[in-house]
Write a structure and sequence with these properties.
By secondary structure, the chain is of the alpha+beta class. The chain contains 17 helices and 30 strands.
């Protein structure tokens, strides 16, 4: 690299990169992908605006009404590139056992050979962007550096919002620092006489591949979301979960919130929730309990390491929110709506006549006319959705009205409680406190949701999603459970309490028993007080539960019968869960920790007493 020809595409970038491993890698990628130009990202606002102008000029983006949504753009993808492609996502560990039954595995040498064929010449006619990024606050001992190489200005713009990028990251990396390599191409080279498409991608070949041992991500063919923004799920969870296992910390698919009592006492809570279970809403919740306040530290990912005091300290490794737009409203999440008023990127929403965005659930009344995400005229009489179900917003976290002052504290925040959630109409009570860390790990490992009409499979069918990590764990999940147990057994550790919550319990007529939204603060209050030892609970076969009188429901119009059902232990329902849990655990074979199988047996014994 140091000897690159002066007129080569990489020559300008070469003089600014002091890390030899990075220099050599940039040269390697440029030689294979053959871009017309190489741009080393500096992370400046001028660079961000340049990416926006490039997208506007190419037709891939539209400027939104500056009076309604300042410095914001609207982007449409194509119908073949609208979401994460789980069936094309691979863990290329050395052995299939290492990847486990929870991942698609491909032999690494064979996959590299295939990817080499696809990446060769893939950036012809394009600019190759080199994006140094930091997951977590710069200077944090919990943060990690990565570098994504991409040929997409959309990726550069989104990474500007979602991570700390540019020159300051290169300075932190230094001459010999290690970094995660992320190699991305939309897979759509431009010939000499060809015009670029508004949304370049490869409709035939899509691969999102992770090489855990070498800390590499290779993503080809998609320009969308987590397939292309490699700092997000690819690095922050799939690769980081392997790093966490090897280095004795936790990389989790969890929100982080700050809970403050009327007396000014603070506790920090993380929570793992599968999709459609209200994770972002909880992270930005507005409390309905007088004097209690919730603030946001992160809405999606938590990295946790032990501090000198034996407690787990968490950072949000991201700098922005990449949120699902449909269903987000002033009713469901007013703080999210206030966050996205400016400086945001909207993808696959509908467009209003006055140059703003709209999506299903945003307002009670549908607009009289829209242009849908596929550029077609739309009215409330149309028999189709105006926005895509996975339409997204990308927005800076610092704009959130309830962002906590310590959200970028390099040392992180000490975690008092961990929540596991799911969407269950029956069986699972409103809240359960685990007996101990091992029992809490068991509760997280068996977390589940019932599929909705929007999901594949039968409505109401149970889907296990342990710790909400099933699509994101970069190695065998049986070993992942063992890692959780090992962390809990760390000498001198002062572990957080673990709870299960379920806002979605229904009555016999299919109506929700709990009002949810801001009223969930009443459950958070009980959890806070349990951490302090000032709230009561009763031991049951499934864990510790509040009695109806232990929850603060003052001013809440909820029938006593409903509260009783919410906190009832359905013995027959739980006994019905036992064989399902055994069946789920069976797939992990010998890698499943014996302690978790013991927990199932103990649960059954307690239920039968």
């Amino acid at each position: 690299m140091a000897n690159a020809p002066v007129d080569s595409p990489v020559s300008a970038a070469a003089g600014k990169i002091k890390n030899k491993k990075l220099l050599d890698w940039v040269e390697e990628v440029a030689a294979m992908c053959r871009p017309d130009r190489v741009h080393l990202c500096d992370g400046s606002d001028q660079e961000y605006q340049l990416m926006i102008r490039i997208m506007l000029q190419s037709g891939s983006a539209i400027s939104l009404n500056p009076e309604r949504r300042p410095n914001s753009i609207y982007v449409r993808s194509t119908t073949v590139d609208v979401a994460r492609v789980e069936d094309r996502t691979f863990i290329c560990s050395k052995t299939q056992d290492e990847a486990g039954p929870n991942n698609n595995w491909e032999e690494p040498t064979r996959m590299r050979r295939r990817l080499t064929e696809l990446f060769t010449g893939s950036m012809r006619g394009r600019t190759m962007y080199v994006i140094p990024y930091c997951m977590g606050p710069l200077g944090s001992p919990i943060a990690k550096v990565g570098v994504e190489i991409s040929d997409s200005p959309y990726v550069v713009a989104n990474m500007h919002i979602m991570a700390r990028v540019g020159t300051k990251v290169l300075e932190q990396l230094g001459a010999d620092g290690d970094f995660v390599k992320g190699w991305h191409s939309v897979g759509a080279p431009i010939g000499p006489n060809e015009q670029d498409s508004a949304w370049p991608c490869n409709s035939e070949h899509k691969y999102i591949c992770h090489f855990p041992e070498t800390r590499e991500i290779l993503s080809f063919g998609s320009g969308y979301g987590g397939n292309a923004l490699l700092g997000k799920k690819c690095h922050a969870l799939r690769i980081a979960s392997v790093q966490a296992r090897d280095e004795s910390w936790l990389a989790e698919h969890m929100l982080i919130l700050k809970l403050t009592s009327p007396k000014g006492e603070v506790k920090y809570v993380t929570g793992a929730f599968p999709s459609a279970c209200g994770k972002t809403n909880l992270a930005m919740l507005i409390s309905t309990v007088p004097g209690w306040k919730v603030e946001t530290i992160g809405d999606d990912i938590a990295w946790m390491k032990f501090g000198d005091d034996g407690r787990l300290y968490a950072i949000n490794p991201e700098a922005g929110f990449f949120g699902v737009a449909p269903g987000t409203s002033m009713k469901s999440n007013p703080n999210a709506m206030l966050t996205i008023t400016k400086n945001s990127i909207f993808t696959n929403c509908a467009l209003t006549p006055d140059g703003d965005v709209w999506w299903e659930g945003m307002t009670d009344e549908k607009p009289a006319e829209l242009m849908d995400w596929l550029r077609r005229q739309w009215t409330p009489d149309s028999a189709r959705l105006a926005s895509h179900a996975n339409a997204r917003f990308t927005t800076p976290a610092k704009q959130c009205p309830v962002i906590a002052k310590e959200w970028e504290d390099p040392k992180g925040v000490p975690i008092d409680a961990i929540l596991f959630g799911g969407r269950r109409a029956t069986v699972i009570p409103l809240v359960i406190e685990s007996f101990d860390w091992q029992h809490g790990t068991f509760l997280g490992a068996t977390a589940s949701s019932e599929t909705t009409a929007a999901a594949a499979g039968k409505v109401g069918q149970l889907r296990r999603d342990p710790m909400a990590m099933l699509p994101f764990c970069g190695y065998d999940m049986g070993s992942y459970f063992a890692h959780w147990l090992k962390i809990g057994a760390t000498p001198g550790a002062k572990m957080p309490k673990i709870f299960v919550v379920n806002w979605f319990r229904k009555d016999e007529k299919g109506k929700f028993l709990w009002p949810g939204y801001g009223e969930n603060s009443r459950v958070l209050k009980w959890i806070f007080e349990r951490c302090n030892g000032t709230a009561n609970a009763v031991d049951t076969p499934i864990g510790r539960l509040p009695r109806p009188e232990d929850l603060d429901v003052g001013g809440l119009d909820i029938p006593a019968a409903n509260l009783s059902k919410l906190l009832n232990v359905d013995v027959e329902g739980w006994l019905g869960e036992i064989p399902l849990i055994h069946q789920f655990f069976d797939q992990f074979g010998e890698r499943l920790p014996k302690a978790l199988r013991d927990e199932v047996n103990r649960l059954e014994q307690r239920l039968k007493k």
